[in-house]
Amino acid sequence: MGFDLSGQRVLLKQIKRLAQVATLEKLPRCIVGMEACLSAHFVSRTLRAMGFEPRIIPAIYVKPFNKGQKNDYNNAEAVAEAALRPNLQTVWEKSQDQLDLQVLHRVRSRLVSRRKATINQIRAFSFEQGITVRKGLRALKNSIETIVEERKDEISPRMWSILIGLYVDWMWMDDRVEKVSAEIEEVSRTEENCVNVMGSVALVWSWPSAPSGIRTGQLPRTSLQRIPLRPRRLARYLRNGFF
Hints:
Blueprint: E1 2-3, E2 9-11, H1 20-24, E3 31-35, H2 40-50, E4 53-57, H3 59-62, H4 72-83, H5 96-128, H6 137-150, H7 157-190, E5 201-205, E6 224-228, H8 231-239
Parallel strand pairs: 3-4
Antiparallel strand pairs: 1-2, 5-6
Helix pairs in contact: 5-7
């Protein structure tokens, strides 16, 4: 769906995914709005290479423009109307390197979560067998070998095999977390526009390609700044796709 500068609808056409590039090449260069989704950054870079001006809009800002029941037609109209707003906050277009780094962080987060769940299972299963371990990761790591070797007669063979399997999973995830963390650190050291972010901190770019809606003030155009954010506010920025 397309609108002219006066807000009048001038285009209404359903475009299949495989025909998007061929169809858009025939259109005059203009602003192309899209809702933030998994492939939005890839599509945005493709459109920019073709000469369009893509705008990735968070779904939370599209919703006020949606009229009637939610369907493809009404949603496309809402996105088109939102894209025409000059002061609307849009999502910062990520490069492929930035997406790769984001994926590394997500993979590491998943591995850490699964490792924690595995450790809790080992502790819980051991407690069910009457074996208690002091709190803390290091205490369990130092005790697990003693549990599976010296107290083997106190548990059933099947439970012993389960604990061994969980311990192997734990060691494998430890190794994976270390490798992914090392890769992230390597990128942080070699990438010019990258900085380690510790805790609840949002990274703000201070040159003209900064995320819209994030004020950088009177910062030098060649520097980076870390601005602390409250956890709830940081979660809102992450959920809406600003980082």
